[in-house]
Amino acid sequence: MTRSNKVYTLPAPAKLNLFLHITGRRADGYHELETLFQFLSFGDELHFQVLAADSIDVTPALNDVPLESHLVYRAAQLLVPYRKHNSGVHIHVDKHLPMGGGVGGGSSNAATTLLALNRLWELGLSPTKLAELGLQLGADVPIFVHGQAALARGVGESFTPAYPKEAWYLVVHPGVHVSTAEIFQHPDLPRDTAPIDSAPENWQGFHNDCENLVCSVYPQVASAHKWLLNYAPSRLTGTGACVFACFSTETAAQQALRALPDSYRGFVARGVNQSPVMDALKQLP
Asked: CA nearest 265: which of 105, 149, 154, 133?
């Protein structure tokens, strides 16, 4: 194919859960959620090289994660039945986002893979179909496929477009990996927050139902949360471990970042209501 050997680079942006409510628990054990997603102008980068050989290769390897379990590899494999040609792909992932940080790195990587290969392999699948496939990989993958900030409900698969203010954020990772499964299985997790009617104009009046529990189980998260409160109201994203604070200017966020303790990692990014991958896709042939 004409695309062979050329490398195409696409972003895999981070996300924030500006709030996260748990409104119930289903009979199958899954939780009913209500969360406001917004993308960030910062994330990982994925490099795609279409191969004439029928193979899927992902680099670099992840420690203790076999290739067959890698979300990027699994996303590519989901598209194999829809190929019209037996072409393959080499995908290189430049990781900038912390794993287990609650900023959606793995889900975003998977979604960018679905979107990119749909174009590069000329599959012609609709966004709805790609999101349906992506849901097999994780509840957050569909929102990254659709690429629009949204109020998500259900297990995260049902969403309504939302338009929160595109503010500046400082995101802090305290250097600990939070187990999402542990938090959602914990008996002290609140599971009865009343649903809201629609996405609020001011999300800061709402909360993250996981925050108090995560801070109690992971003291490193509690310490980062307390440190960030010195600069602006702080809250947890997803089940953590990252905490974030909203700033009115990039300068103010960068000033706080410069004071970040050495034991933490952090970055400043702008909240954006359209995923950066949407513009990047327009550059693909």
From this structure: 105
Using the predicted structure, report yes or no on whether residue 3 has a pLDDT greater than 80: no
Residue 30 has pLDDT above 80, yes or no: yes
Structural domain that includes position 116: 1-285
| From 140, 197, 226, 279, the catalytic residue | 140
Question: What pLDDT is attached to residue 1?
Answer: 45
- The residue-averaged pLDDT of 213-238 equals 97
Q: Between helices 127-134 and 71-79, what is the axis angle to 10°? A: 130
CATH number of the domain encompassing residue 146: 3.30.230.10
Could you give the angle at the alpha carbon of 134 between the alpha carbons of 43 and 114, nearest 5°? 60
To the query of whether residue 84 is one of the catalytic residues in this protein, the response is no
**What's residue 185's pLDDT?**
93
Contact yes or no for 236/69 (Cβ under 8 A): no
Is 165 one of the catalytic residues? no
How many Cβ atoms sit within 10 Å of the Cβ of residue 246? Answer: 20
How many structural domains compose the chain? 1
Distance linking the first and last C-alpha atoms of the chain: 12
